[in-house]
Amino acid sequence: MATSICARGLQGALVSSFQGTWESSISGDDYHHALMQSVPRFVTVGKPICSPPSMKNVNEGKGLFAPAVVITRNIIGKKRFNQLRGKAIALHSQIITEFCKSIGADAKQRQGLIRLAKKNGERLGFLA
């Protein structure tokens, strides 16, 4: 069934032709079929904008002492190497703490010095 709609205004005539009924093929099964055709089945997601934090050293393999550190780790094994590294880091932190006590630095300054020591260790290759 075809219906013709005609509207007249002050400036002229506007004619529109509507083919079909108000109960057209957009309802029922046809609507569901059309909807499923327009929706993508798989959505690809790109890389996340903010990567999760990583404990990995950004300067791994770089730095003056990196080759010596890698050779030592390969000789004595990863487990023993990490134990020695942990002891060395703890001893260095104690030395920094004692230094801060002797000069009267507060805990915030001490923490800043420990972070600076870690950064320098990364740059020099001690954490390779």
From TrEMBL:
Biological process, per Gene Ontology: photosynthetic electron transport in photosystem I; response to high light intensity
InterPro entries: PGR5
Superkingdom of origin organism: Eukaryota
A single cellular component GO annotation: chloroplast
GO molecular function list: electron transfer activity
Name of the protein in its database record: Proton gradient regulation 5
